[in-house]
Amino acid sequence: MDDFLSKFFHNVYVKKHHARENNYCKFDDEYLQLFTSSLYLAAIVASLGASVFCKKYGRKPTMQVASIFFLVGAILNAAASNLAMLIVGRLLLGAGVGSANQAVPLFISEIAPAKYRGGLNICFQMLITIGILIANIVNYFTSEIKNYGWRYSLGGAAIPAIILLLGSFIIVETPTSLIERGKKEKGLKALRKIRGVDNVQKEFEEIVQATESANRIKHPYMQLTKRRNRPPLISAILLHFFQQFSGINVVMFYAPVLFQTMGFGGSASLLSAVISGSVNVVSTLIAIFSVDRAGRKKLLVLGALIMLVSQCAIGAVLNIYLKSTNKVSESTAILVVILICSFVFSFAWSWGPIGWVVASEIFSLEVRNSGYFFAVATNMLCTFIIAQAFLTMLCHMRAHIFFFFAGWLLLMTIWVLTLLPETKGIPIDEMMERAWGKHWFWKSWCKLPAGDVEKPKELVKVEQQVEIKPAES
Fold first, then answer.
1. What CATH number is given to the structural domain containing 144?
2. Which residues contact residue 31 at a Cβ distance below 8 angstroms, ignoring those fewer than 6 apart?
3. 132 assigned to some structural domain
4. Residues 6 or more apart in contact with residue 358 via CB below 8 angstroms
5. Does residue 210 lie in a domain region?
6. Of 231, 258, 104, which is closest to residue 167 (Cα–Cα)?
7. Does the residue 218 lie in any domain?
8. Structural domain tally of the chain?
9. What's the CA gap between 332 and 337, in Å, rounded?
10. For the chain, N or C: smaller number of CB within 10 Å?
């Protein structure tokens, strides 16, 4: 929005309206990039604190803390009178993102039955896409409000923050979190409430067994360095590295910038962002109904291939038609919007939601919090790098930047095909044995050390029921 740029990023405002300014460089400004990326820098730090807080106090309080960060950050941004105040507000929003992304997928994975876990986790992603769409619609209408439109736009984030805060008092804590903190009776009560039946003894005993085993681990971050925990750690990190280097946040953060680069007016650019946001929501529904049927790997591979074609096509069209100072024809601009929608469409039912689903379910319980932190932190770090660097990269690489992301998409496809196990339908607490332990490459990593033989579950249960006393002399 021009009013926003004029107040906080005056150099960008001047370049944007300079008649002969290079199309690819008109938004190149490190402070504008910092406004976008600072949120994710804060999220990295917050996700580390949230991983410890989440384990010690539970998933529900972590969501409450996240909502408070969101609320205060939105108020600061709406009231901002200078760039420093604006950035502080973004940092607080980032703390909310880091805390929420740590707690919510874990919460969903731990309350969901195995056969519905993927679909329920994708509901989390779908509601994020709805939030993005609503934000784009709000931006479109507030852009017509002179001088103060941007304040309504940024301050509007307080509304979902309040909803999240109130909602977090209504939900129950996960049985796993309650049991691992020694609250077995409350855990049993919560499990009965979540399942809607009284006969949950078998599942309850399995959770108790898993949590007791996990609680014997005093330093979960150190446990991640053990050979058998490295496969899920490496895979979670790579999943979120590749997710961000697919180029999705280039589109989601800077869609109006891309459209204005091609010569769209301000309102038309925001309307185009609404269109791509609508595609994002609708296509996420596909993932909800297919992830637990088709499986994770098939959707990841197919999605990456469609994104690869879309990125190459966007790069080719812009390389041919968009020069330094011209405007592309209306038909060419519409074609690029269609290709961007194709890219968003394929991401929204594949790497977007499934990246979070797989990362939340592949770790054993004793390292689930700490392992998932590395997934969240990787996501936030890569998002920060992309957000901070993209406008400068666009200025120097021009249309070739889309081929840069296409190269990563090719690597993603090969990695999923060869090194990521399928996790569809596997109970979350059996993932190490049934997914990693049977994978052609990772199975040798998952073997227990010599002399450390894992006891059959039936024997463990018998031992737990029998009190063994020391022999009398």
1. 1.20.1250.20
2. 8, 9, 83
3. yes
4. 235, 236, 239, 296, 420, 423
5. yes
6. 104
7. yes
8. 1
9. 9
10. C
Rounded Cα distance, 218 and 189, in Å: 27
**Does residue 456 belong to any structural domain of this protein?**
no
Q: What is the 3-state secondary structure (H, E, C) of the chain?
A: CHHHHHHHCHHHHHHHCCCCCCCCCCCCCHHHHHHHHHHHHHHHHHHHHHHHHHHHHCHHHHHHHHHHHHHHHHHHHHCCCCHHHHHHHHHHHHHHHHHHHHHHHHHHHHHCCHHHHHHHHHHHHHHHHHHHHHHHHHHHHHCCCCCCHHHHHHHCCHHHHHHHHHHHHHCCCCHHHHHHCCCHHHHHHHHHHHHCCCCCHHHHHHHHHHHHHHHCCCCHHHHCCCHHHHHHHHHHHHHHHHHHCCCHHHHHHHHHHHHHHCCCCHHHHHHHHHHHHHHHHHHHHHHHHHHHHHCHHHHHHHHHHHHHHHHHHHHHHHHHHCCCCCCCCHHHHHHHHHHHHHHHHHHHCCHHHHHHHHHHHCCCHHHHHHHHHHHHHHHHHHHHHHHHHHHHHHHHHHHHHHHHHHHHHHHHHHHHHHHCCCCCCCCHHHHHHHHHCCCCCHHHCCCCCCCCCCCCHHHHHHHHHCCCCCCCC
Q: Model pTM?
A: 0.73
**8 A C-beta contact, residue 88 and residue 76:** yes
CA distance 367 to 290: 28
Rounded to whole angstroms, the Cα distance separating 266 from 193 reads: 50
Q: Say if residues 113 and 429 touch (Cβ distance below 8 Å).
A: no
CA 406/CA 299 separation, integer angstroms: 18
Q: How far is CA 153 from CA 76, 144, 217, in A?
A: 13, 11, 46
Q: In a structure prediction context, what are the per-residue pLDDT tens digits for the chain, which is 473 residues long?
A: 888 988 898 888 887 776 456 777 877 788 888 888 888 889 888 988 888 898 889 999 999 999 999 999 999 999 999 999 999 999 999 999 989 988 988 888 888 887 787 778 778 878 888 888 898 889 889 988 888 899 999 999 999 999 999 999 999 999 989 988 889 999 999 999 988 888 888 888 888 887 887 777 777 778 888 888 899 999 999 999 999 999 887 777 777 777 776 666 667 777 777 888 888 888 888 887 888 888 899 999 999 999 999 999 988 988 888 876 667 787 888 888 888 889 989 998 899 888 888 888 888 877 887 888 888 889 888 988 988 888 888 888 888 889 999 999 999 999 999 999 998 888 877 888 888 988 899 988 877 554 444 444 443 443 344 333 333 33
Q: What are phi and psi of 23, to 5 degrees?
A: -55, -40
Q: Which pair of tokens denotes residue 195?
A: 């399942």
